[in-house]
Fold:
Amino acid sequence: TDTALVGRLTFAGSTTIQPLIAKIGDTFQKNNPQVDLDIAAGGSVVGIQAIHDGTVDIGMASRALTTDEAQGITQHQIATDVIAVVVHLDNPVQNLTLEQLRSIYMGQITNWKEVGGPDETIIPVAREKSSGTRGAFAELVLDKQDPAAPNLHSAVTAGDVVAFVKDNSAAIGYIGFGNLEANVKTLKIDAVLPSEETALQGVYPLTRPLLLLTGPLSQPLANIFLDFVLSS
Structure:
């Protein structure tokens, strides 16, 4: 615009999207130094509810919204994300089928030796219920059920998942592709390793939309930010 943008935009929601928006926000602020960005997280459910309540300008969700959640919300898909399944670096398992992964989290497979690994009790790690990654994992892997493994470990953030798996040889967890680190091992699912290429080709089974959300109480400045996010 011909006049400088001035104001403050507030965000809340997915911990998967937060670091991406922080990076995009840095560039936006270089172009618009008089706009402040307050980018909080809290999980996708928090972001969706905040838009319904009108307490933030832009919500962040890392899964598809339900019909009820979508009422009164405008959804802007900014990316496709991959959910990666990770284990300890010393775990010899290279691949799980989608059915084996489901069985691990539902408590039907409880020892790594059942899927070609060591004789060790599996410790599945799940995100907390407000997490969009957990919601997407439940939809893509668990037939929309809650995990039922007897020794399920709960983690608040993707970083917590990585830290726990790194330190526990029997652990298995799931994280957004952008949270992958070299200190854990990524498994193939149905013989396909997650990557940009396999996600775009549609052959890797665990993908989900990354959404920014606006509502009737979002400031007009939010739409200017969204135009920037979706621009080349």
Summary: The radius of gyration is 19 Å.
